[in-house]
## 1
Amino acid sequence: MNNDTVHETALFHQIAGGDESAFEALFHLYVPKIKPVIARIIQVEGPEKDIIQEIFLGIWLSREKLTEVMVPHNWIFKMVYHRCYSWLQKQGVRNKASQIITRESTDHSNLTEENIAFSETALLVKQAILQLPPQAQKIYLLSREKDLKIAEIASELQLSPQTVKNSLVRSLKSIREYLTNQGIILPLFLLAWGVLYFS
């Protein structure tokens, strides 16, 4: 077992115990590795950050199984190929998706449970967004779905950038609280990554 595998296995064990700082360390370790792979597979600019967020959401949601993973690198890349495949399928590029999955990874059947957990969480996030006040909801959706930066949202809604940022921070905390009340605990940085870190 090489040093990288030993280090990543240790991170996996810490994450399995709910350690958010270990999860954030894994996130920052892997984003530079997986981003170019995702870009190469989907061949479209823009959706990478959503796919990355989905991958790490999947890792966090299935964290209790991480102690069983022998080679974290392979396991993470299997998730990358699977998420890219799902994204391509949604875009109606089934043949391309099938070729990629056949070429890159032959076993993705064990991801069904993770898919169910991911779908349930995604639905709860949507419900949490609907609970936000109308203005906060509008700001959050402009950031999340239209991919607008804080300054662009401020300009469009004629608000100060600080007002927009404060609203996003409150919304993220509210979404996290809603998920926690539903029994799903997500690291705040993961929810915020796509919203605040690109602004």
Note: The CA atoms of residues 11 and 22 lie 6 Å apart.
## 2
Amino acid sequence: MTGPGMAAHVGARTVTEEAVEARVTALRRGPLASRLPRPGTADARNLRRWVVQLLTYEAVVEDAAASMGLTAEQSCRRGEFSLSSALGTGGVTAAVLASLPVATAVYDRITADITVAPSEVRAYYDRNRDQHPGPYDTSRPAITEELRRAAADRHFTLWLERRHATTVTLHPGFEHPADPRHADATHRH
């Protein structure tokens, strides 16, 4: 199904313009409203495009959770991802982890097998003695977890981006904010 009122498709799911406008309205009524661009500006149109990105990424995660049989209650770290902690992953992935409870369950499943080699932990310790002045054996568990978390964040972000690229179709006017095909493309990576 295509046509007016459609912002994107995620597999068989449709993201409607109405859903986009509802999310933008919610943002404009939220605590960060004063930081949002004025309606009718190029930046406001890019805000809508970013909201479409968020909605489509959320749909990708929801579909993955359904196919894996996961619920928000199955997350090992349910409630751990605040916006500030999710920002370590960056971009839309951070927003999805902060806004969609089931995303942490999907994150946990996708990253369950991520490990860090002991040689990487030792090399990190040796390079960062200013941050870890204590003995290696004392610092090793915290460093291992820090490096494992960073590797898991990268792994999940890449998984999510690949899945998004293969399942999402954006409709004209709802392209990524950096897409050079629209006149408002001022966002650069």
Note: The chain has a mean pLDDT of 88.
## 3
Amino acid sequence: MTPKTAKKFNTLAEVDAYLSAKKLQCLECGKSLVMLGKHLKSHGMTPKQYKLKWGIPQERGLAGVEYRQAHSDKLSAMREEGKINHDHLADAAKRIDYDSRTALTSASKAAHIEFLAREQPYNAHRISDGGKRANGKDATREREYQRQYRTKKRNSSP
């Protein structure tokens, strides 16, 4: 596909085919790159503008399949080692302003909330109520303390 024959994607199958290559071809100039993010600055575009122009859903990355897989593997390893977790997702999901999101986002508000309620990825490592943390403190009291602390910190910010 060359930029002259490139046209806006109409189906997710077309988007998937485009994003399944090792390198992605810039639909503006035709260059093949592992990741398009920084390259788009040369066209005076942001990734969001590029996605809107070409019909790519906002939640999709602009990187080749091998790069995305390597990044996914790296994050999975960090999750398994305990370096990162999903504690922030419950509060973050409540703060999403769904009205300002673009029409290209495939998941609706109801579907997203239903998924989080069903899967609860942020609770995968949670100590059950009444359980003790490694430091011997009650897990339920510690969680409540953290909620109060975050609320106080958020409300005291200018």
Note: The first helix runs from residue 12 to 19.
